[in-house]
Design goal:
The complex is a heterodimer of chains A (252) and B (295). By secondary structure, chain A is an all-alpha fold. In chain A, 73% of the residues lie in helices and 0% in strands. Classes of the chains: A mainly alpha (252), B mainly alpha (295). At the A-B interface, α1, α3 and α5 of A face α3, α9, α10, α11 and α12 of B.
Amino acid sequence: MMRILTVILGAALFGAVKLPAEHAISEAHRQLHFRAVDFDPALRKQIGQLGFIAGLSGFRSLVADVLFVQAHVAWERTEWSRVLLLFRQVTTLQPRAILFWDSAAWHMAWNASAAALRDPSQPRLALRIKAQREYFQLGKDFLERGIRYNPDRPELYEALARLYRDKYNDHERAAAFFDKAAGLPGAPNYAKRFAAYELSYCEGREKEAYGRLHALYAAGENERLPTLIRLLKDLEIKLAVPPDQRIPDPIP
Amino acid sequence: MTTSTHRAFSIGRIAAIAGNTFTELTRLKVFYVILLFALLLIGNSIFMAQFTFQQEFQVLKDIALGSMSILTSVLAVVATARLIPQEIEDRTIYTILAKPVARLEYLLGKLTGVLLLLAISVIIMSALFFIVLKVRQQTVLSDTLRQMHGSSPEQMAEALGAVRSSAFQASLFSGIAIIYVKASVLAALTLFVSTFATTTIFTTVVMVFVYFIGHLQSTARAYWLQTNGAGAITKLFLAFVALFFPDLQLFNLLDDIVAGTAIPLALFAKTATLGFFYTGFYLLLAWWVFYRKEL
């Protein structure tokens, strides 16, 4: 009887310390967006039983790496559907790795889209363009989902800005996302400059763009890059800035 | 005439048992697994050289830390599982316990020997990992210097900074420390199982299941409660599992460390403390069973 009581008391004491401590650490993980992988039976079908168990047993990143290497091989063979499928699995397993989201979006929006446009098996241009746009959308989708998992990292905002700039020609959104990237810790120093560049192409926002480009110009020699000076010069003409307020012509 | 007093608890006796356990384990050539680890690292770094430097460093860190975690976990279980059953089979345990050695001292000595083995293994593997990482970093840095020749100093500094930050992060050290803590928990739990098990195979098989349950329980619990609702029996079962099995997912910080996330010091301290708490508790449990064991 005494032994049973001791066991119950010991278990209760252990639980009283263990469970709240585990809960506190789990909460900290949640707040830091750790362990962002959900138990998804669909993933088990995709990566097989062993991969699924390994993925949930502390070897998520190892399984993700193996799949990433497979995606790289599929890319070399230009098997785009397989690249898409594998990157979906990779990003599901390791949603905190920026590199995977960025690579997935790059493969879709840049490589697969270019291949779709030059697809020799599709004689109709309209359908090739449609396929190209679908790959742009897939690239955008990867980046948007990546941002949802990593809202505190500038890299994916910057990649999305580049996608809007280079693939959709949407300078307003490109400027907005370069701005978001520039506002986050660890952002590259060109993000702010690129946001101002993109703004300068937006109809009706020239004045705002001029103000921002001028502020960058005034910040010092390091910011006075050829593109910045050229855009400032263009805006000075467009906005009819008085000659005495214009920046000096660059020394040839 | 000299009088010698017998102390109920002696660090010296524990150290002697620990030293002996460590020597015994090293004779089993367990350090050969480190050779495999080195081969894996070098082979991986050669293969990954075709990728971009960010991809290369990420995969290198994943493979290195992941295999370090697997090897230390396996080592912790296999090395500990054989200790007590082997000593009973060889009858050496009777010689030791016939002397004035407390059973707690015996268990503590055994566990310390395994922990020492794990610590040395982790240190050697970490050193190998950092050497390979440094060599690859230096190669990429010199390639970058060559490629960026003629660029402005700011661009050069940014490119080199990107290479350096992709390779080394302070969080790698926290990750390695947590790998060790997790292996310590597994070693203590294995010691507990081996106090009532009769064979090494039984202990090892039980520990394989405990390992999977420990990793899967929190994910499975969340999924179960979310999709199936929770009846009284289900809740009781989940509470039982949550009470007796360690939540090993809490020690799984590597995925986020490799992804570039900094681990806050407070979280690291809490995780390490929880690990030591588990280790202490399972050791006490092992003592409680071993104390009553008829030998």
